[in-house]
Amino acid sequence: MTKWLYAAGALMAVSLHACAVEKKPPVVEKGKRIVQAYVDAWNKYDSVAIDTLLAPNAIHEDFAQNFRGQGSAEIVQFMRRTVAAEPDFKWQVTNSFEEGRYVAIEWTWTATYTGPDPTGKPVSNRRISGRGASVAELENRKIKRFSDYFDIASLFR
């Protein structure tokens, strides 16, 4: 009987140890939070927050709009031009992935747009919406490079 108690106790100890070994610490995704804060700063037109989230000489590229800005001053000017054309825009992250110093996001964009459409025709107060993706490269908890990828014409369909 004593042998069975020792065997059961040993089996219980091994089982508990195996469960403890299988538990992994939670993954802390700091980069995702930084990128989300950047999107939030755009949604709030918060140039001060944008400045604090960007590395010195950070680059923001928006390929669909043929924009490449370096440094927070150029990037904030781009944001202000966007606000002027789309004063009620809403940029929402729908999915994100973080690997090392890179964060990729999928997003939606909705706004009321006034300005030239992709064909050059002037439009006024036109509702637009679309989806896109962005990749951010981080360095020392700051955004070093942020690149937007989307089809601008699809926003107007």
Characterize the structure shown.
- The protein is of the alpha+beta class and 157 residues long.
- It has a single domain, classed as Nuclear Transport Factor 2, Chain: A (Roll), CATH 3.10.450.
- It has four helices and six strands.
- The protein has helices at 2-22, 30-43, 47-53, 72-85; strands at 54-62, 67-70, 90-99, 102-116, 122-139, 142-149.
- The protein has a six-stranded mixed β-sheet with strand order 2-1-6-5-4-3.
- Helix 2 packs antiparallel against helix 3.
- The protein is globular and about 45 Å long.
- The termini are far apart.
- The mean pLDDT is 87.
**Helical amount among residues, as a percent range?**
25-40%
Question: How many distinct beta strands?
Answer: 6
As laid out across the biggest beta sheet, the strand order is 2-1-6-5-4-3
CATH class category name: Alpha Beta
Shape: globular
* Low-confidence parts: none
C-alpha end-to-end distance:
78 Å
How can the largest sheet be summarized?
Answer: 6 strands, mixed
Domain unit count: 1
Quick overview:
This protein is 36% helix and 41% strand. It is built from four helices and six strands, in the order αααββαββββ.
How is this fold's topology laid out?
Layout: H1 2-22, H2 30-43, H3 47-53, E1 54-62, E2 67-70, H4 72-85, E3 90-99, E4 102-116, E5 122-139, E6 142-149
Parallel strand pairs: 1-6
Antiparallel strand pairs: 1-2, 3-4, 4-5, 5-6
Helix pairs in contact: 2-3
